[in-house]
């Protein structure tokens, strides 16, 4: 995720969420990820009537329990499966040779 990714998320997910038309003013709670705190991101949120609150570093477990309980396990499991696939997965080929996934696997 980078600054453009944050802007895309705001425009394509946050600004299109269900219920937005009924209550356009909102609060978005974010952590101290540097791209969350950039002026362009803040300006975009201000333009869509959104206030921003920032969770101080080290307090994520208190304010984002799903990030700690669910996302951490999910990301760890995904990483294990990715590593296994990279090491043991079957290579596939196209008419032109190894597929893009095989080429990226060989570069890891």
**H-E string:** HEHEHHEEH
Proportion in helices: 40-55%
Q: Based on helices, strands and strand pairing, what is the structural class? A: alpha+beta
Oligomer: single chain
Principal-axis shape = extended
User: What is the overall number of helices?
Assistant: 5
**Rg, nearest Å:** 19 Å
Strands, total number: 4
Largest sheet: 2 strands, parallel
Tell me what portion of residues adopts beta-strand conformation.
5-15%
Distance between the termini: 20 Å
What does this structure look like?
The chain has a two-stranded parallel ribbon with strand order 1-2. It is extended. 3% of the residues are buried. Helix 1 runs parallel beside helix 2. It has 5 helices and 4 strands. It has 108 residues and is of the alpha+beta class.
Outline the secondary-structure elements.
Blueprint: H1 3-12, E1 26-30, H2 39-47, E2 50-54, H3 60-63, H4 65-88, E3 93-94, E4 97-98, H5 100-106
Helix pairs in contact: 1-2
In short:
This is HTH CENPB-type domain-containing protein. This protein has about 110 residues and is α+β, with helices and mostly antiparallel strands.
Kindly list the characteristics that best describe this protein.
108 residues; alpha+beta; two-stranded parallel sheet; two-stranded antiparallel ribbon; 13% strand; 5 helices
